[in-house]
Design brief:
CATH architecture: 3-Layer(aba) Sandwich
Shape: globular
Distance between the termini: 11 Å
Number of domains: 1
Largest sheet: 7 strands, parallel
Strand order of the largest sheet: 4-3-2-1-5-6-7
Mean pLDDT: 95
Number of strands: 7
CATH class: Alpha Beta
Low-confidence stretches: none
Bound molecules: adenosine monophosphate
Length: 183
């Protein structure tokens, strides 16, 4: 099965739209026959995403470090839960088990995961594309940074470009196309 790794907050955020969007993204992935790889927790947007994907009959794979099993309330109902030793192993396994990456709103953890996915591609460790879903303008600042960094010559290669968009289905379809996993 082809899968998309979704990076998102361990909190739900200040607007109900964030969790609603996480649930919508879960359903869109399942509708497209794609599995979900995520951080394995029951809390925040992560939990909303996982529950909605499971409810829709999808495959959901969680990857959580042992130290976070309690803090992020490891989800007991997943298709597969991988408990790993370190954060590095978490990111490596999430990368291995997926064909593309999608970031929803989140905090430092989400950014860490997104930037590692992008930089590893830039360095040639994998060739899996990443997308950022700009929900309610949440990532306007990040998009401005990408544009400034490209304009000022710090981001050069098209390969490292990140897909960014505000419409979940359209962005997902661009990501799927870019990853070559359209069914
Ligand atoms: P946040 O976006 O900060 O709410 O975090 C979202 C997810 O990213 C949570 O499951 C965090 O445990 C995870 N996370 C935070 N830091 C890291 C890291 N360095 N490597 C991998 N995952 C992380």
């Amino acid at each position: 099965m082809k899968r998309v790794a979704v990076f998102c907050g361990a909190n739900v955020g200040a607007q109900p739209l964030y969790a609603e969007t996480a649930r919508l993204v879960a359903r869109l992935l399942v509708e497209r026959g794609l599995g979900v790889v995520f951080g394995g927790g029951r809390i925040g947007l992560m939990g909303a995403l996982a529950d909605a994907a499971l409810e829709a009959g999808g495959e959901v794979i969680g990857v959580i470090p042992q130290a976070l099993v309690d803090r992020e309330q490891a989800h007991g109902g997943l298709t597969e839960l991988n408990v790993v030793s370190t954060m590095h192993e978490r990111k490596a396994l999430m990368t291995q088990r997926s064909e593309a990456f999608l970031a929803l709103p989140g905090g430092f953890g989400t950014m860490d995961e997104l930037f590692e996915a992008i930089t590893w591609r830039q360095l040639g460790y994998h060739d899996k594309p990443a997308a950022v879903l700009n929900v309610a303008g949440f990532y306007d600042g990040l998009e401005a940074y990408f544009e400034r960094a490209a304009a000022d010559g710090f981001i050069s290669s098209l390969r490292t470009r990140v897909l960014i968009g505000s419409e979940p289905a359209a962005l997902l379809d661009r990501l799927i196309e870019s990853a070559g996993i359209a069914s």
